[in-house]
Design a protein that fits this description.
Layout lengths: L15 H7 L13 H13 L9 E6 L2 H10 L11 E8 L4 H18 L3 E2 L2 E2 L4 H6 L6 E10 L15 H4 L11
Antiparallel strand pairs: 1-2, 2-5, 3-5, 4-5
Length: 181
């Protein structure tokens, strides 16, 4: 087991594949603020993500107020731990054809950027978040897609210890059923 932030290259962040290989969902965070420069990098990663026809259908609400975070945790049925995070980014989308796909890509970019800087997260959402829209004054014409709590993980995180299907069971060459390897 390695603590979050290990595996970095000399540039201060880790290689993209290493971030993908090691990123885990984290639901417990230290009571330690995330630096403003790191928050900006995370949000910029979302903003810079590609989107279909360059529509960029996302809106990111950065929440650091302790009381608002507590209320978000109370409203998020699948993520009460949001209340303990020092930071959350709420992702809303325009109601357009590719919005969920595009915003999902932006979310992944933000999660990987945070992880590469030693900051953990987890995706909270998929329905039941109407009261969050009211709390954050998100317009009715937008859909709320996710709440992303961010923070430094409590304890040691098992980097790269994932339970995944073998590559040969999910990857095929040329046609389904043809071995990839």
């Amino acid at each position: 087991m390695v603590s979050a932030g290990a595996g970095r290259k000399g540039t201060g962040t880790m290689d993209v594949f290493e971030a993908i290989r090691t990123m885990l969902a984290v639901r417990r965070y230290q009571d330690k603020p995330v630096p403003a420069t790191t928050i900006r990098r995370i949000v910029e990663a979302g903003r810079l993500t590609g989107s279909a026809m360059n529509t960029q259908p996302w809106h990111f609400i950065v929440v650091q107020d302790r009381e608002t975070l507590r209320r978000l945790g109370a409203l998020a049925q699948t993520g009460p731990y949001v209340a303990q995070a020092p930071l959350a980014i709420v992702v809303a989308v325009d109601k357009s054809r590719f919005a969920v796909s595009d915003a999902s890509r932006a979310i992944q970019s933000m999660l990987l950027t945070a992880w590469a800087d030693g900051v953990a997260s987890n995706w909270v959402g998929f329905g039941g978040l109407e009261e969050v829209k009211t709390l954050l004054k998100i317009p009715a014409d937008l859909e709320l897609l996710a709440i992303l709590p961010f923070g430094y993980p409590v304890g040691v995180v098992g980097r790269g210890k994932k339970q995944r299907k073998l590559l040969g069971t999910v990857a095929h060459r040329e046609r389904y059923g043809q071995p990839f390897e």
